[in-house]
Specification:
The protein is mainly beta and 86 residues long. It has one domain: F-actin capping protein, beta subunit (Aspartate Aminotransferase, domain 1, Alpha-Beta Complex). 0% of the residues lie in helices and 78% in strands. It is built from no helices and four strands. The chain has strands spanning 7-21, 26-41, 45-62, 66-83. It has a four-stranded antiparallel sheet, with no helix packed on it. A hairpin with a 4-residue loop joins strand 1 (7-21) and strand 2 (26-41).
Length: 86
């Protein structure tokens, strides 16, 4: 007996890094974003769900500011249901 799956998931990661090294300041940091897409098929409808998380970090070394380390993250989620027409 074969089993039928009605759910599909996908995960994407994007990474970016920055390094600035001049005489007055040293700045480094970057960001990551993770996106998870879920699709669930039902009898006459499909449910789509997207969850995105952005993570940011930055480190500076300036004579005026001394050393500073800043980081944070934000997550958002949206869900939609699409009903098939007969």
């Amino acid at each position: 007996m074969t089993q039928k799956f009605n759910k599909l998931s996908s995960i994407n990661l994007i990474h970016e890094y920055l390094l600035v090294n001049d005489e007055s300041s040293k700045v480094r940091g970057g960001w990551d974003s993770i996106h998870v897409v879920e699709v669930q098929k039902r009898s006459r409808s499909s449910r789509y769900k997207l969850t995105s998380t952005i993570m940011l970090h930055m480190i500076t070394s300036k004579p005026v500011l001394s050393n500073m380390n800043l980081s944070g993250s934000m997550t958002r989620q949206v869900s939609r249901i699409q009903i098939e027409k007969i």
